[in-house]
Specification:
Pfam families: Rua1_C. InterPro entries: Rua1_C (IPR028012). By secondary structure, the protein is α+β, with helices and mostly antiparallel strands. Helix content is 16%, strand content 20%.
């Protein structure tokens, strides 16, 4: 019988299929334009410039930071420190040697480097309180920030006594999350969302020393596989900052336990992608930081989008520039 089979809750399992909203229309469109004409037509004018940031905002495409299927067990435990190196690959080009009609060798680029730039003004703006804003937040952000249904007592009461088990479990007394029903972004100023509710460490003969100490994520929703492998993919290393990077970048929690604020607004914004030979205008979704008013490009939030995983990863990563340091364990 699989572990915790009697405690199995189908509502708490990740559903790999995305929900589709009826009646939605795609906002995305693009057109190939002559590069010089694009720069002339799409440079912002002061009278129409949006006030949340500078008129011409260069942005970095942060979608390379995480794989699309970021909710998979394997990607949960990938090293975010190693993953940050992906941004360094943007400047590398694959080159291939081809023979031209004259028999000479010519070098061609296997990958074109494009520069992404936000231009002009918002096409659509959704502010807090708007139905569209709340729908996007509830569908694409809240599921990755809400608490899971795992009870800390289950680890100590069940796995602790499992014969020949490699891990010992311990309830974290510093955690003040008293219920799995706590609602995120509801002014829980005194709740520390960072502290893991359960620790685990490798069993050794020396009971006074903790080897390979890991913390249980309170937000990742367990899959069928997790129930069968003792929830190994929900624990993250506390010594190598794996737990720190996971909580901050995946679940929007500062290391002092407080929550990262929700975007000031979400909007659809024109974006110019260009290289030396071509340019293209498309529309992307942008979240505006409530602290510095910077526009942060996020993944497609349209109802028709089939993008999987947390679509606000780039926004959470940006919020780390406003990092709130650790304190004595209080939320704020």
């Amino acid at each position: 019988m699989p572990l915790f089979n009697v405690l199995y809750d189908t509502d708490d399992i990740v559903n790999e299929s995305l929900e589709e909203i009826d009646g939605g229309n795609s906002f995305r469109n693009s057109s190939e334009l002559v590069h010089s004409q694009v720069l002339e037509d799409y440079m912002p004018t002061p009278e129409y410039s949006y006030s949340y940031t500078s008129e011409k905002a260069d942005i970095t495409d942060l979608m390379l930071e995480m794989p699309e299927s970021s909710e998979s067990p394997e990607s949960r435990r990938m090293s975010f420190l190693e993953n940050d190196k992906l941004t360094g690959f943007q400047s590398k080009r694959k080159r291939s040697i081809q023979a031209n009609p004259e028999g000479l060798e010519s070098e061609t680029l296997g990958r074109k480097v494009r520069k992404s730039t936000l231009v002009e003004d918002f096409v659509s703006v959704f502010e807090k309180g708007d139905p569209e804003y709340m729908e996007m937040i509830n569908m694409h952000l809240i599921p990755y920030c809400s608490l899971n249904e795992l009870d800390p007592d289950l680890f100590v009461g069940h796995l602790q006594n499992k014969r020949d088990h490699l891990w010992a479990y311990e309830i974290n007394k510093k955690s003040n999350i008293t219920s799995n029903r706590l609602v995120r972004f509801a002014n829980h100023d005194n709740v520390n969302f960072y502290e893991p509710r359960v620790f685990r460490y490798l069993r050794t003969k020396n009971t006074c020393k903790r080897h390979k100490r890991e913390g249980l994520c309170s937000f990742c929703k367990p899959t069928k596989q997790d129930y069968q492998n003792d929830f190994n993919n929900l624990f993250f290393d506390l010594n190598s900052s794996g737990y720190l990077h996971h909580l901050t970048k995946q679940h929007g929690v500062f290391s002092n336990g407080s929550e990262m604020p929700l975007p000031k607004l979400i909007g659809l914004h024109p974006e110019l992608k260009s290289n030396k030979t071509s340019a293209k205008i498309g529309h992307v979704y942008v979240a505006v930081c409530p602290i510095c008013n910077e526009k942060v490009k996020v993944q497609d939030l349209s109802p028709e989008s089939q993008v999987s995983g947390n679509r606000f990863l780039a926004y959470f990563r940006h919020m780390l520039t406003h990092n709130v340091k650790k304190n004595s364990g209080k939320g704020r």
